[in-house]
């Protein structure tokens, strides 16, 4: 946690975005804008947007669709006041032909008139709910990144987008697994209920100590490994599709919206 | 209720669709395929599909997106086994330049390689839940069509699609309004919680006895008029956009899917 992070922990969502836009905050967003949805980000040329949107609709657990920009309009007006998707995320990854080209704190130079931005829900929301219910989350308590694995679960394809589902793992006490399922299911815009609890091998994970992304997390005595659909899934689908240009957030560096976590629908009414 | 309807009340969803496809059943679908999602239908040329999908994403209460076909592929494979959207709905309305051209029991001749089919959730699901909770629904008990009104609530526009929200009204006993809100909120794919309860004038409805669509329903002593977002909203948006060709279901003649009403996500896994 940086001093900057401490300073912004109690700030309003608009103030956090304003600091990010001004270039004064470029670190991860965990713990910021508490109570409001944070999102993963994928920005693609319009030629691929309908297929990508279908991919999200067909795979709502890994890719919960929270907001979609107009083509060429960087203002995400359904997700908050004055959100400019070119500048209001702390760090972006630029992919060309499916490969990471570079990271950057602003995409003003890369944005084009044919771009469409997709905001997809992330796990911060249900993790907070688990913690509030007294279910500890090891990687948060130990300031690590959640362990993520490529599972053997197929996603439902759409156009060039397809692939296996990436899952994130949290070790949950056996007597709280049912609670964890019930609590996270309340947040369909944050991956919803787990896709699997128990034997990692059943979903094609041979070594739980060696995640494909993130840091290993120990499965302590009495804990059950519980697996949630993960927002890295669409990133892998985009890489596999090898489209000419795609922009994502840098992992952990999310878009902070003005949508309350418990909102029935993730849409800020234009008049409100 | 026709004899045909009685015969199909206990049939499996696949059998009902098979009867419809064969032309042996052409009436309304209320009460059929109990326990499974039924959907409204909008089929548009791909040139308008991304904007229409954005319109649905931005207005999830009137337009809850349940399924989207591949472009030119009439098989709605995420919603059930062997659903051919050209033949498996009992009656279709064909619109040209925003005007109703004709109704037809099959669109095999009208379907084109650039068509995209959208299935949108409908109110049958939450109405059944209300009735099971002991909350009577007058228009069902009296075999009428629910009264629908053009409200003064703006939808969030996307491309050529915009307009006021259409709402449906059910009179609910004052001491059950909170229950009705809580119950229907559990079904986000069936319009979710009401958008308004109480004074019709507050949402621009001047005469509750004269609905814009459907049949009038009396507001008995002790009942509160409760308004839900209605699936006629996208139909009005499509008419207003006056796109060259659009196909919808004929009201009441819905698509019966294989998705259980209480499914966490409306997607049939390809392998299941």
Automatic annotation (TrEMBL), chains A, B:
InterPro entries: D-Glu_cyclase (IPR009906), Putative_hydro-lyase (IPR038021), UPF0317 (IPR016938)
Key words, A-Z: Lyase
EC code: 4.2.1.-
SUPFAM superfamilies: PSTPO5379-like
Gene3D superfamilies in alphabetical order: PSTPO5379-like, PSTPO5379-like domain
The protein's enzyme class: lyase
Family as reported in the entry's similarity comment: Belongs to the D-glutamate cyclase family.
NCBIfam families found in the cross-reference section: PRK05463.1
Protein name per its UniProtKB record: Putative hydro-lyase OE747_05495
Organism from which the protein derives: Ruegeria aquimaris
């Amino acid at each position: 946690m940086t001093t900057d992070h401490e300073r912004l922990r109690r700030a309003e969502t608009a103030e956090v975005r304003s600091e990010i836009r001004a270039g004064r905050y470029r670190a991860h967003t965990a713990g910021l804008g508490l109570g409001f949805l944070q999102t993963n980000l994928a920005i693609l040329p319009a030629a691929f947007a309908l297929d990508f949107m279908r991919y999200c609709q067909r795979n709502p657990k890994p890719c919960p669709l929270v907001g979609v920009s107009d083509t060429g309009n960087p203002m995400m007006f359904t997700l908050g006041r004055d959100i400019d998707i070119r500048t209001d995320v702390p760090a972006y990854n630029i992919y060309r032909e499916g490969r990471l080209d570079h990271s950057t704190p602003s995409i003003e130079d890369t944005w084009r008139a044919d771009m469409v931005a997709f905001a997809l829900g992330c796990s911060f929301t249900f993790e907070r709910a688990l913690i509030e219910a007294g279910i500890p989350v090891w990687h948060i308590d130990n300031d690590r990144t959640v362990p993520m694995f490529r599972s053997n679960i197929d996603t439902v394809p759409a156009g060039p987008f397809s692939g296996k589902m990436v899952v994130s793992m949290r070790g949950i006490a056996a007597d709280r697994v049912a609670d964890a399922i019930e609590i996270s299911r309340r947040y369909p815009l944050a991956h919803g209920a787990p896709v699997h609890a128990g034997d990692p091998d059943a979903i094609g994970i041979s070594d739980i100590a060696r995640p494909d992304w993130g840091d290993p997390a120990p499965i302590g005595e009495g804990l059950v490994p519980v697996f949630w659909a993960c927002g890295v899934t669409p990133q892998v689908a985009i890489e596999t599709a090898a489209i000419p240009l795609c922009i994502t957030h840098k992992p952990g560096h999310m878009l902070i919206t003005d949508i309350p976590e418990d909102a029935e629908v993730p849409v800020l009414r234009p008049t409100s």
